[in-house]
Amino acid sequence: MPVRMKTGFLVVLLLLMGATLHAAETLYVSEEFEVTFRSGPGNDRKILAMVPAGRVVELINKGEEWSEVRLPSGKEGWILTRYLTDKMPSALQLARLESRHTEMLAQNKEFQKKVSDLAAENRALSAQLKQTQETLAAAEANYEGLKNDSSDFMKFKADYEKNRKELIEIRGKAEKAESQLNRLASSQLYEGMIYGGGLIVFGFLAGYILKRPKRRSPLM
């Protein structure tokens, strides 16, 4: 077979398959207990299976009396058209609603658990934040105390240095005054000794002169 013919055949096949897929429609078996699934469009055709109510089928060809459908298993056959509907049966709707309700309950339970976990985490974070704030306040108080202590220490150090210098100056002045006083005392003692010695010598000489016998005059 030429390549062009092969290509054309594939294109036509794909188009037919696309048209078939496009025409496929999802229907439901109406709310009967069971309907016959036959090999052809007629009550005389072989029954392939009994399809329960609510079963989903894929429409292949829709007719006025019989419609060709495909079961979820892939088996193809015919069902009376009046037993097919595009509306979901109430039983199936109820089952889906119940399933959805169960899912929502599970989601709600999971959501409540997440809310509880978030609340617990929020409480833990609040406690941690409070502790952090208290620690920060204590640290700030200690910092202020250290600043004050440091300021007081620097002031005390400055006063100490000032007093130390003044003490050195006063001590120097005191030592100088004491030295001058010692010199003055020594000078006064020396002068006293000289003055006293002079008095003693003067007294001795005066006594000597007064006690010396006077010479008598020859005229007497």
- In spatial order, strands of the major sheet run 6-5-4-1-7
Biggest β-sheet strands, sense, barrel: 5 strands, antiparallel
* SS-derived structural category: alpha+beta
The low-pLDDT segments are 18-22
Q: Briefly, what CATH class of one domain?
A: Mainly Beta
Query: Helix share of residues?
Result: 55-70%
CATH superfamily of one domain: SH3 Domains
Strand tally: 7
Radius of gyration: 67 Å
* Portion in beta strands: 15-25%
Q: What's the pLDDT, averaged over the residues?
A: 77
Looking at the structure, the CATH topology of one domain is SH3 type barrels
CATH architecture of one domain: Roll
Q: Rough shape?
A: rod-shaped
Number of helices: 2
Order of helices and strands: HEEEEEEEH
Taking the alpha carbons of the first and last residues, their distance comes to 209 Å
Annotation keywords:
single chain, two-stranded antiparallel sheet, five-stranded antiparallel β-sheet, SH3 type barrels, 220 residues
